[in-house]
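Recall the central idea of this unit: under ordinary conditions, the amino acid sequence of a chain determines the structure it adopts. In this exercise we apply that idea directly, starting from the sequence alone.
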Amino acid sequence: MATVAIRPAAPESPAEAAALAAALLRNRAYMQPWEPRREEAYYTPEAQAERLVDGARRWFAVDGENLVGAITLTGIVLGPFRSGSLGYWVDEGYAGHGLATALVEEACRAAVEEIGLHRVEASTLLHNHASQRVLAKCGFERVGTAPRYLHIDGDWRDHHLFQRILHDDPPAGYGVAS
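Accordingly, the structure predicted from this sequence is:
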């Protein structure tokens, strides 16, 4: 993993969309148990170009020209809540070498330093023990279980819910009342 770098996504880049589409297609069978079922068009550069400008924050793990992992921070809410939801994946050939942990830590760093979030949340299928270990290593705590939470691999699946409190400072613009 020494050659892998983590960097912010370049949402407007056609090359980025093509690299993402290639990585998702290459890992389609590997990720099937953890993902919603997708139309064929999802695996095209055009569909990924649309996704890349959807307002989410993304970071990519790259090894040379190959995109080998990604993390997305969606549902970002500011104001007094200051929260977002994480989703991530790692290329089959890079799994089990700490890359998911590095992606989660980078997204949490940026969530505090660049976005000003107070917490981030994530969910896993009940049997996704590898992802649960990643979240535990990164300081997430399990806060509950949601029945039929997401439609994954053709069915509504139960998920464990996790959160990480990033800090306890008041949000910018919401000072302490006197």
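The chain has five helices and seven strands.
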